[in-house]
Here is the input.
Amino acid sequence: MSFASLGLAEPLVRAVNELGYTQPTPIQAQAIPAVLGGGDLLAGAQTGTGKTAGFTLPILQRLHAFYAENRGARRAVRALILTPTRELAAQVEESVRAYSKYVKLRSTVMFGGVSINPQIDALKRGVDIVVATPGRLLDHMQQKTIDVSSLDILVLDEADRMLDMGFIHDIKRVLAKLPAKRQNLLFSATFSDEIKSLADSLLDSPALIEVARRNTTAETIAQKIHPVDRDRKRELLTHLIREHNWFQVLVFTRTKHGANRLAEQLTKDGISAMAIHGNKSQSARTRALSEFKNCTLQVLVATDIAARGIDIDQLPHVVNFDLPNVPEDYVHRIGRTGRAGANGEAVSLVCVDEKQLLRDIERLIKREISQEVIPGFEPDPNAKPEPIQRRGQRGGNGGGANGGNGGGSAGNAGRGNRAPRAASQPQAQQGQPAARRDGGTQAKAAKPQQARGGGRPAGNGASNGGGAHANRNRSSRSGQRGR
Here is the structure.
């Protein structure tokens, strides 16, 4: 299967091929036809599966076809992509620009921590696609510097992380300001009850795509536990890095303070290291990521939230210096390695305090992680566990919040439960077409819908730009948006 066979125009295929991609990944093979069909989509995809291209490419195709058919149409914000962090927003918009190299579409990225004025200037010049974090988008909406009246496509990327960071209320405020008639795409690495509730309130008879088992880790990642006393973790980490000559090591800590302290200690050990977290300035975070990506920085120490958006091909090593309080975060963390079929290694340094966290993780991923005691770092068999501070609490060893939990229920908006229709079955082989329930080979397209007026992009995104509009009339549901 090729990208061209999925209905993408030649300029998009050319840009993708120039980036070294010749075959779509399973999520791309299933999501691209579904998005081109114009219907809503609920996609379960882990980090590193190529999900960003799974929604950016068909969005670019639809807008490219729209402007080809409507040459006099004014430039307007027609697609909005919401992400939980600045880094992920920047990464997604970078992908949009790379894929749109040969089509005349404009995009911009908007997040906090930097001046809002350049973002306002970009909006004044006219953009087709906006990638934003919820808070900064609301700033623009309140200042009336962004016009979303022509919006046709909304994407919630890494929706599970947005809920975990407490963005549900911001998301609802954004939804309340968007046109009722639009296509909604929700991507999440995990399917918690909160995600299901959000999907039910947001999506209209969505296609359901899952390319990996729920809440599981990729088979390409070699996972290992090194038991160690809590006060010897840093010493063991330094030993492992030197012993195995590791480079490009992404290390996770539970707190911002812990990230700073570990980076300082590693630097004193002669290992180049920097920390990124929410308290760092945007310029400092950008610099650290840049040096890490180009291999001038050996170790990047990060909190869970700050690490979202780190997109590095063939990242070899991920280390859990602290196990996460939430088991799903373990899946997110180690998903930074072993991406797109490449092999990766995930090492966790586990002390006696974290044994219950380890059991929770193994229960989630439905497998026991192998353990290896490193000679010279044998844990004290008589050590007693000490309590680990949970999110939102202060003080203690390794305590504190690194972003807050405030997920909460997304709410059902008073609507009945709907079972999403399956666009395809889970797929194991890359580049193969999705299988339908009836045994066919094409991803199930959205049902034909009534044409939408107002000069919006057509739902049938064939490369020639033809086809009738496939967007639905949702006027009866407009009052439920953003509740």
